[in-house]
Batch of 3 targets.
Target 1
Amino acid sequence: MSPSPLDRRSFLGLTGAAFVCTLAGQRVSTEEGQIDVDRLAGGVEVPPRVAAANGSAASASAAAVATASAQVREYWIAAEQRPWNIVPTHRDQMMAEPVKGHSTFEAYAYRPYSPGFEAPLGPATVPGPLIEAEVGDTVVVHFRNRLKAPVTVHPHGIFYSNEMDGAYKGKWTDPGGFVQHDRTFTYVWECREGTEGTWLYHDHGPMDPLPVFRGLFGPLLIRKAGEAAPNRDFFLAFHTWDPSTTGLRNTYYCVNGKAYAGNTPTLEAKVGERVAFHVYGVDNFFHTFHLHGHRWTEPDGTIVDNRTFGPADSFSFEIAEDNPGRWFYHCHVFQHLHQGMNGWYVVS
Amino acid sequence: MSPSPLDRRSFLGLTGAAFVCTLAGQRVSTEEGQIDVDRLAGGVEVPPRVAAANGSAASASAAAVATASAQVREYWIAAEQRPWNIVPTHRDQMMAEPVKGHSTFEAYAYRPYSPGFEAPLGPATVPGPLIEAEVGDTVVVHFRNRLKAPVTVHPHGIFYSNEMDGAYKGKWTDPGGFVQHDRTFTYVWECREGTEGTWLYHDHGPMDPLPVFRGLFGPLLIRKAGEAAPNRDFFLAFHTWDPSTTGLRNTYYCVNGKAYAGNTPTLEAKVGERVAFHVYGVDNFFHTFHLHGHRWTEPDGTIVDNRTFGPADSFSFEIAEDNPGRWFYHCHVFQHLHQGMNGWYVVS
Amino acid sequence: MSPSPLDRRSFLGLTGAAFVCTLAGQRVSTEEGQIDVDRLAGGVEVPPRVAAANGSAASASAAAVATASAQVREYWIAAEQRPWNIVPTHRDQMMAEPVKGHSTFEAYAYRPYSPGFEAPLGPATVPGPLIEAEVGDTVVVHFRNRLKAPVTVHPHGIFYSNEMDGAYKGKWTDPGGFVQHDRTFTYVWECREGTEGTWLYHDHGPMDPLPVFRGLFGPLLIRKAGEAAPNRDFFLAFHTWDPSTTGLRNTYYCVNGKAYAGNTPTLEAKVGERVAFHVYGVDNFFHTFHLHGHRWTEPDGTIVDNRTFGPADSFSFEIAEDNPGRWFYHCHVFQHLHQGMNGWYVVS
């Protein structure tokens, strides 16, 4: 077999474990296997505004931060590479089966730091750290890119001006849409009225969606001002690790970077608690969220125990916990469920 | 061609009529064609709590039934195998075409019985019998498994304690999550406040989802207490028969086990009637429900004539019938529509 | 390679750029490539009621028009064939890349005419012309088929009697469900109470869905009586051009017939304006609509910036424009986004 032509765009025709090559926009040929993001990134030109800003000492966003009168929630977050084991137990506790095959690859992940990037606050994780604020706050994310390829932070839901959207836009790209290796960009976003909710953030740079599919996403929560937090907040990203981005043999349907109960988050709560679930999707697929032994009321008043959502959809619901036991949460697409998209919810 | 490796998990990467094998968790190799569920079931160990309960004369659920003070709705349901013809007319009335190919296979189906399993109340059907109750009721399902492989009944929406969820959970499995050949388990579920709605029930045992994809699912309706029933209640399961579970050559996109108008349910109503549609999904795919010549108001107040839903989603709507004629209902995914997921709604 | 058997039904198992043949209902064999609709249409029998009506001078709908007391909105629309360039700039402005490959094919498109089909009001377009009315109005569409294959106009949402549904129904087909080459049929539809909303119309004739997938669809808006229009109304169809219907090499994920920013509609608005988006789906896939820098309130009160919708789903939302800049709108299925389903929204 000759090498398959494969680039950023061509890998996108994913269907289950297989991918279908498109023939448009080919830039490189690779053997079947992991796409070489760094190599691809070498072919991307630095957009003109980004090049101009590179010579400037002042951050484009300094003025915006200075004039923000509301409370400022400040985060220092880096994008880093790290080994990531998708199925660390090599077991599927739901079906009581082994999960064969090598399951560790080099992921991209957001990592929280103390102010000034002095010291990491923990490891880089998939998903990245929770960004949390209240309506009225200003969120400032100091973002450092420790990857070789340019990446960004693009938020959902929150208010941001055009140059703060963290999106690559070809020749119209602002510096926040193309953060180069070892550079830092400071994003300033505003929690205006009407931005409350559970959202996600993710890379939206020139290599999109490859860095997202290698782990560059995380949760963003904007509470109403003064709103009392529930006893538990669970943030659950439903997404897929694909062979073309991991170099692994299998596709894994994941919750928060892990696959199969016992590897995915085992959520714990107690009877009597207010428990909030915050669910979002970050892949090419549509999913449902199903919780055994429980049901909740949707904003339209309907009672459900299963809900459809798509890529970048996010939603929350709260339950008053009343049912002890060992329960499953899972995607109810049977294929996804049985390829890892399930976990335990243990109520004592 | 050498035999394809194929097991419970590997068949799940379905896309249209094709399936993509995953390489994890292979337990058997089979020729292309129907997965041998009984053979696979032979490799599943009896979970410890199930083995312990097998020696016990008392049903784990007897106490619960005895203490139920509300009205008890009692059902006797067996899981059985039976021949099932997906396209009995061998015609597609929508397109006025023949539907070629053998369309009968050995399905799994729930069958209703009189008390004590004295006599069948009718044939085993796909979907299984309607389980119907009101808020405040207790539902008791005496379930007998006449299949060789262990299967269960797992309900949506209704309240159940942990040992009544009918779900296989590996070493944590309760007897209700692993009902063996020729054994009976009695499920006790409660229609508490906040469980009203249209739901589904289905197998969730150790062979999941193979038995579901061979027919083990059915509708569950919980009305509000004292609520007046409409003139017509139509329960419509949107699902797929796949070659790997039927052994047939083609994939069929079905409503209630049948494919193509004239085989799927021909619904009938009269002008002036209140007509309720109860729709749910039971496969790997997302569907829409579209009804010609009619529209309805969603709980959020929007008016629609087409609605997206996913696996295990269920929803209901009611119309005041005002438009006589021969109408289609169908999934509006064009591929699904034209591979059988359509039927007649005849209003006189 | 021997010719692949391929017909109207067999092309339906589309997955990304590939299609999976089903084996049912084969009528012709073709080389890989564009399906020959005209040739297939030659094999379809004229339904009995259509044949009977062909000899009649009077339109079946004349009486209905005459008795309509409300305002009549009258349209003259033809279905025509025309060359259609999906990527006229041969550039993807989002990723600043060329889009290689021939992108012009012979589309089917609805074209607006002056009364009596005197003169075209503009070119045939994909989507077709907006049909617009208010609750209380009667919509009359004089439809002329200039294609060789029989096609129709089937509307969503609006009220229509059975013979006005524009749907092929095999032997039950009315003349409006099978409009032959060079014939005209007049559809009469009513904007009754409870039909307000954004809808779509599309072919639903005997070749369905081939003509839809070659461009026969368009938007239908029914405003509430006396409702003030927003400053801007954007109608966006999310759909796919597939090799089997275009004869082109690639699959294109499109908005309004075009793929990739700079080719898809560049929407323009000004700060302070009320801007309405009307979005609908017309292919085999589920999509999301995401708008950068903005969010909106759903009818159930939730705030979102991304929404899932399926084939023939349609929805609208309105924003009070407050955020200048060059923004993206796009489907957030990453595969679709990067195969063309994105565009610019420029706010000044």
Target 2
Amino acid sequence: MLDQVKALTFDVFGTVVDWRGSITREGEALARTKNIHGVDWAKFAEAWRALYQPMMQEVRSGRRPWTKLDDLHRMNLDRVLRDFSITGLSEPEIDHLNHVWHRLDPWPDVVAGLTRLKRKYILATLSNGNVALMVNMAKRAGLPWDVILGAEIARAYKPQPEAYLRSAEFLGLRPDECMMVAAHNSDHEAANALGFHNAFVPRPTEYGPGQTKDVTPSRAWDVVAKDFGELADRLGC
Amino acid sequence: MLDQVKALTFDVFGTVVDWRGSITREGEALARTKNIHGVDWAKFAEAWRALYQPMMQEVRSGRRPWTKLDDLHRMNLDRVLRDFSITGLSEPEIDHLNHVWHRLDPWPDVVAGLTRLKRKYILATLSNGNVALMVNMAKRAGLPWDVILGAEIARAYKPQPEAYLRSAEFLGLRPDECMMVAAHNSDHEAANALGFHNAFVPRPTEYGPGQTKDVTPSRAWDVVAKDFGELADRLGC
């Protein structure tokens, strides 16, 4: 059944890259440079991320016209900076901080795992991140994608069906020729309902040491692997 | 002035890959397998390619709704098979032949040149080929693109401005942060009018030994290089 899979389509934030750790590190470095005191940057990262789904929901619902993720991130950042009473950043500094999402670090197993998987499969991003974000992240981190697909190309945010279906369509593949790779059960539920195969790679510290969500599969997904190395093993790469 | 260039955007058919030679070789192999006699496969390739611009013009003009290149190629193939009186191919065989565009071979300098250029620049396709065609070609030939852009993503065929402008926009770049790499002066004229920089890499045998068009630059383009190795030299890669 998995023999028909030709492309692996990847969730990125959380699955491929460690947004919480990366933003925490960059925030702490910024705080030292700019003499910002008393900010818990892990909490800052979590607060910024917490506004992600509600803001995309504005677009999904049609209340807001299509807006790329960089711009949603910026509106959310302005709010989080206010909530954490962080002042004294210039416009270029805020803009640079907003682009931290282009500079997220991958989990340690990612580059080696993707390099193995790429020999056998088309590797596509199927993320809500916009194209420039995905391209800049990949250049910096050495992520060997074959193609950048997902929300901006489809003009629909996951879990809307169009995000998955249009990505498969751009590859000239049926959904059952694609396998979603993601650390989030909700992403798998949405993709599976459309016919995608599913490889669940939990990232149990994505939200920090106390994480309880998405540490185990919600259903018997086709593959469950602890990291991209084990995924490559399981897929015979 | 070229210091601001962050992405190289590539024309593909003719500039990166040798469509005429590749189709000729595959046609000749097919003829041996299927006992097809008396076909000049270089002429066949040229005839198929000659229908390319008129068919895209149907889409550009709005007379035909958006249609991806694989499907335009197929309509043209059906006609060329009739014109060359080639019969006896099954539907799967015709479909396979239509996908020869996914299996075109690069010019000998391409893979090494792109590998050098990739260290310094974002490498994007900006072709009229559809995404699946570009991805399959790249996997087979080892073309190290960072991102697949161009006509299907923009839903506009070059030289329509949207094909170039939307590709730059997806990268989050201004046109003058992009450099078009192409073997065709007309592609450079269109991109240059929008603010792109231009690297002309002539492919003087794209149309065979008697080629007279596009063997020299029509204007003083920013860079003129004989192949992708010289282009990498000129751009300090």
Target 3
Amino acid sequence: MTYTKDYPRIVIVGAGFAGLYAAKELRRARGLKTVIDRTNHHLFQPLLYQVATATLSPADIAQPIRAILRGAKNFQIFLSDVEEIDIEGRQVRLSCARTFSYDYLILATGAQHSYFDHPEWEEVAPGLKNLSDAIAIRNRFLRAFEKADQAVDIDEIRALTTFVIVGGGPTGVELAGSMMEIARNTIADEFRNIDPRLSRVILLEAASEILPAYPQQLRVKTVQMLQRIGVEVRTLAKVTAIDAHGVSIGDAKISTRNVLWAAGVRANSLGRQLGVPLDRAGRVKVGPDLSIPSHPEVFVVGDLATVVDAKGQQVPGIAPAAIQMGRYVARQIIREANQGVLAGQLERSSFIYSDKGKLATIGRASAVAQIGGIRASGWFAWILWLLVHIAFLIGFRNKLMVMISWAWSYLTWGRGARLITESPNDKSSADSRQTA
Amino acid sequence: MTYTKDYPRIVIVGAGFAGLYAAKELRRARGLKTVIDRTNHHLFQPLLYQVATATLSPADIAQPIRAILRGAKNFQIFLSDVEEIDIEGRQVRLSCARTFSYDYLILATGAQHSYFDHPEWEEVAPGLKNLSDAIAIRNRFLRAFEKADQAVDIDEIRALTTFVIVGGGPTGVELAGSMMEIARNTIADEFRNIDPRLSRVILLEAASEILPAYPQQLRVKTVQMLQRIGVEVRTLAKVTAIDAHGVSIGDAKISTRNVLWAAGVRANSLGRQLGVPLDRAGRVKVGPDLSIPSHPEVFVVGDLATVVDAKGQQVPGIAPAAIQMGRYVARQIIREANQGVLAGQLERSSFIYSDKGKLATIGRASAVAQIGGIRASGWFAWILWLLVHIAFLIGFRNKLMVMISWAWSYLTWGRGARLITESPNDKSSADSRQTA
């Protein structure tokens, strides 16, 4: 044998789609497998916007990593941040000061928001990447109506009930549709001093069209569906300033107290420690086998990596691609471990991304879908969207809970998780008035 | 008419059981009704311990106040803290600086933890009163096992997997039973470096018996059931010190990193502003009609009040009593408003508490119940407990979700909400070790 011990030590950092599916595939592998994540759960990110818009509870789209890997042999799970990677020494140092040596390293720490050259926008325009973000957005969104109901100044009420979403990708589209529906339907009759139906939801996109990764026909359909439910879609709208009072697009200013950021992501900073070339978004440029140059034992997968596959496709930053990458690297490791050779001593087949299609919801019973050559929109695409998301959710309980939540929301127009959980409202937007 | 306007202005502060059921009863009353709460939801407190022990999600036991009162005429709902009550001027001033005048005031702001003369214990021994508390306890409880799995010192591991609950009332009993079950069943096989089955759960009670409000026979049963699942019950155990390293009972010290406080409550401080006599726990001493001396227009209900009813019963601080108090005062107001007289000008019947019984769960398929002359324990009491709690939960969706969560937990021994949601673990309890 050629390992330090008589089995390979495999360390996986990050239990998102790429890391988790690598770990699941490695259940049947020899060796000691260590999964390191900063949270105790795998998060089903495609439904995170539904936590932000009060339809689902955090637990519905999260599953404990330990529960997923229960019964799998030779796994250890570590709740920690990673502080440092020593590529030459083949060690990972955790923020709890412990160090793991590895024979194989799978890095899958994903991406976070990027505000480009405006880090100061983060404070006023939160993004949506994890459960804390989702709860913070939910609190802000629901509290805006409470504040508007207490306000007396009409301009203040307008600013409080204007919601601006920056970025016309799938997340922006889904947030916009969902927020408009809540304002127009769910809470429409619940306020005495304001009419939530008069709320504005504005979706801003800097490019000439929203959903750039989708076919032209579906982009047009999406705009039509968004406009039908009342969302204002503005393209070629490059945001130049954001503050607590509004958003500027060049000279034009939208007065709002609620800006959400869905415009850009950048890879996790761990990639920088590898000393290998990165792209502009900080993603690691990996080889055709998803390993880094000169280190066949170090794989980078999911949103942390950028790769053009053997068919010449730029692999997109979406869940199905991450799952495929995770499974692919696990299989390379298993093959080498089974033959007892060191990393990279067998020739590896190149990773090929299999494009299963794209799906995005716009709102109640409307979605767009592209699957192979088939393009669909409206009700049929929505049913497809429901089925695919239920199928990929992990855990029977979560599938059941999400299905029931959706059925209930569909039948009643309600939202099941309309909680404001932070401390009581600050005094910024309220003012003194004698009330009968 | 005798009001300032030609209808009474009714202000309700607090939308717990007492305040909410008063508001629901007042749906059919003339007048403008204002409900003020610091959160946007009514919380079903009897199941709060199940959020703290990862069985239920916050949204399952909370319902937006606006949704509950949707469609009710002449209601306004205000999300705010109350800053000041001017009894003589008949005004309530909110923390958002707005002021409401009233013809009737219903105060129902409930109770919070009391650490008696040791406010410094709050930091190390959190209590369970609201959703933030429950999430904080859940995070601490689940994180303790993660830290233990990462620790190397055996004493440290023991301290991390020892859970001490101070206070043997229903909340303490329910927390203890639930935590023991999670350690022994739910997560028993999920750790590599520790065996959660070896965890200790210790329930401390200063008095000579736990569940003092229950009949002797059921108290004995409860201790037996707790011991059968592994909980250590210690009575006559008066806690003399709590710090980050453990709990002292006189000279004896229990080394633990996890102390929960379920020992005492004190009424919300708003009661002190009324200038009327309070009891030792800060509760307002109200008259037989639940109003305060000389102010028939000011009612105090729920856990904020202390009252011996016309039958000589001390009304207990539990949900059914709060509901009855809320409904009773609403009916007094409706009767006076219908006749167009000022508060207190009609003779009021005295409040009489109707004791429907007591219920507490110990764990899986075991509970104790006293209903009228009937005393039950074990499986039958547990079914009764389930049915009563489902019946009183507000909202069809919540009833359904809670039933499914319970059925799933019963069948799989799992817990549906095992999320650690705070930031990654601190470095306090981990240490450096080279791991293969």
